[in-house]
Amino acid sequence: MKSITKQKSLEEIQQQLVGLDRVYIIGCGTCTTMTRTGGRDEVLEMKERLQGMDKIVTGWLVTPTACDEMTGAALVHANGAIANASCVVSMSCAMGVQRMAGYLDKPVLPALDTLFIGLESSPGDFHEICAQCGHCLLGYTAGICPVTACHKHLLNGPCGGTDSGRCEVDKDKDCAWTLIYKRLKQQGRLDVMRRYQPVKNSQVVPRPRIMRVD
Fold this sequence. Notes:
By secondary structure, this protein is α/β, with parallel strands linked by helices. Helices cover 29% and strands 21% of the residues. It contains 8 helices and 7 strands; from the N terminus they run βαβααβααβαβββαα. The longest helix is centred in the N-terminal third of the chain and has 13 residues, at 40-52.
C-alpha cells in the first residue's frame, strides 16, 4: 500500500514561498517515487521551476523513506545545505512533511497533496482501498470496502441508480455492491447481506488518533 499524492499547483507553491528565497528540496524514494510525484526526476524538475522563480536552491535529496526514522539520518547528512536554506520544500506525503518538521527548526512546505492510501492494481494504477474509518466492515462485504468502492459510501446495498452492474455515478465502473454480491454468492454467504449496518459513527476513533502497541 502506498500514500497516493499529486503535485500542488506552481501558484500554490509560490504562495507558500513568499519571503523565503533559499530552498532545499527533499523527495521520497518510496511512495512518491512510485507515483512519480516526488522521485529524483520530479525533484530535479522542481529545482528548475524554483530557480525560474528566482529562488536559490541550496541542495536536494531523495531520502529512502520520508516518513520513518531514516529521515533524521538523511537530514543530518545534508545539514550544511539545509542550514543555508530558509525553508525545505517536501515532495513527500503529509506524513513525511510532519516527520521532517519535527526534526527541523525552519519551515517545511508541502509541494504535494496527499489523496489516499492506495493499492497498486497494475503497474502505475492505484486505487483507494481504505479510508481508515475506524470501524471495518470487510467481514460482512467479502473483503470489498463499501466506503471506498462505492461513490455514495452505501453500507446496506446498492442505490436505485445501478444499471446492469454498473455504477450510476461512473458508468465505466462496476457497482461496488454488485461486486460484493457476486463474491458473497461465490462464498455461499449471501445471508450476510441481510444484516443491517448502522450509519457510520464518525467519532468511533477520536482525533487526533493515537495507537500504542505494547
